[in-house]
Design brief:
This protein is 25% helix and 24% strand. It is built from ten helices and 22 strands.
């Protein structure tokens, strides 16, 4: 059932997404550097009915980055495999509707210059209630039995318990058994089919898992698999994995695996730092991770920014999501995206305002031209304000909820121009003002979130 990779040479290699040649901490696409910013209503976005309209809504506010799990567990989703009249699935036959939806998303995002980060496997697709209807469940397909594969008919526990053979069927995994080999050909055929659609497109990144807490061996197997298929198609696939415990920053267990291996993990996703961490702690841990990643320079993405729903795993509210996204981008992340509701802002009014505000700031200061310089802020309260700068040339200051700080412009040769942007409204406020050089008082026009850009007149 393996699907040969489609030749992908139609798009010029230089136009495909890749680390930017002048600054590998950021991406370039179609030969130009880009900042990835996004927010969307679903994770498996290819399955929604009004996808084209949603993509247009994203573009209208400046969003150019989506996350897409290959999930088919929600009501109304098409399954990847053909369902027979008996109600069971045949894992040797594809469901055309599923793959047509996927191909449409690839085409429609390419037409709108929206970069797509695919998550190949999501542990939540194959556990608890979702397992009851999963085509891979032995009782739901005509291809294998529990005895042949070691797959049970029920997995009622949270998937973080590492008990599911589905994710241990590659040699080297802690619970690997030879009988699990019967599962892997179907998994490989699925990934081959995915790649036959995605590799011809140059706007796709690949993440192996959604917030895995299992051994890195599983993800490494699929990174190698995708890399070999991409090479056969004459292109490069940029791959990573997403680990659940990275919200702990320096205390997590898998950090060295990724940070010290820039050949395997060709970009980094630190999404989970956006859960459980708030305010200054979020900034400090995000900065620590970015500094650790810089030993092998690669883009660092956060494809999930939590912040809504006040969930027990630390989402906080919608304002927390806005703060996290802007701190991520100001701090040096190459891409950041609001998580879907109700654990994130999706593309709600909070998200729309924040994305517009970032794009307005970009008109005056490109974030790849500046870097954090917190020493330039004086009289600052904790989590009050953050600054990224090219001292003397450009400054972006973010106020989380109004305030007043002193900004050190002593490196400037002459007067600078100050512009205010409302994060809530996503619009400029007031006329540009002349300030500096020297130490200046910077006071927001009102409460709420604000971005200030400071550039030469």
């Amino acid at each position: 059932m393996a699907t040969s990779p489609t030749p992908a040479a139609a798009m010029c290699p230089a136009d495909r997404i890749q680390p930017w040649g002048q600054n590998p901490h950021y991406w370039q696409y179609k030969g130009r550097p880009i900042l990835l910013v996004g927010g969307s209503v679903e994770d498996n976005l290819f399955q929604i009915a009004d996808l084209q309209q949603h993509l247009d809504d994203m573009r209208a506010v400046g969003a150019n980055y989506i996350r897409n799990t290959m999930s088919d567990r929600d009501p109304g989703d098409a399954r990847a495999y053909l369902q027979l009249d008996s109600g069971q699935y045949d894992l040797n036959q594809w469901n055309p509707e599923y793959w047509e939806r996927f191909e449409n998303m690839l085409r429609w995002t390419a037409e709108r210059d929206i970069v797509l980060q695919i998550e190949v496997w999501d542990r939540f697709d194959h556990s608890r209630d979702c397992w009851e209807t999963d085509p891979y469940r032995p009782g739901n397909n005509v291809n294998y039995t529990s005895e042949e594969t070691g797959l049970a008919e029920d997995y009622p526990k949270h998937p973080g318990g590492h008990h599911h053979p589905f994710f241990h069927c590659v040699p080297g995994m802690p619970a690997y058994e030879e009988r699990f080999d019967a599962i892997r050909p179907y998994q490989e055929a699925f990934v081959d089919k995915l790649l036959s659609h995605s590799l011809p497109h140059g706007h796709v990144l690949y993440c192996m898992n959604n917030e895995t807490s299992d051994s890195p061996v599983w993800g490494q197997y699929w990174i190698d698999f995708i890399g070999r298929r991409a090479a056969e198609a004459g292109v490069t696939a940029y791959c990573t994995d997403m680990f659940d415990d990275w919200y702990k920053a320096e205390d997590n267990a898998t950090l060295r695996t990724v940070m010290d291996d820039g050949d395997t993990y060709t970009f980094v996703d630190i999404s989970q730092v956006n859960s459980r961490n708030f305010g200054q702690v979020h900034w400090d841990r995000m900065q620590w991770l970015l500094e650790r990643a810089s030993a092998h320079p690669r883009p660092v993405n956060t494809t999930k920014v939590y912040g809504s729903g006040f969930k027990g795993f630390g989402t906080g509210g919608p304002e927390d999501g806005v703060e996290r996204l802007i701190r991520n981008l100001l701090g040096g992340c190459a891409g950041s995206r609001f998580h879907r509701p109700d654990s994130g802002n999706g593309l709600n009014t909070y998200a729309r305002g924040a994305i517009r505000a970032v794009r307005l700031a970009e008109e005056h200061v490109k974030l790849w031209d500046v870097e954090p310089h917190m020493e330039l802020l004086l009289e600052r309260d904790e989590n009050e304000a953050y600054v990224a700068a090219d001292p003397g040339q450009a400054y972006v200051v973010y106020f989380t909820y109004g305030g007043q700080v002193q900004l050190d412009l002593s490196a400037c040769a002459g007067p600078m121009q100050l512009r205010w942007i409302s994060v809530a409204e996503g619009c400029r406020v007031g006329d540009p003002a002349q300030i500096g050089p020297g130490l200046i008082d910077l006071t927001t026009p009102a409460s709420g979130g604000w971005l200030a850009t400071v550039t030469p007149e």
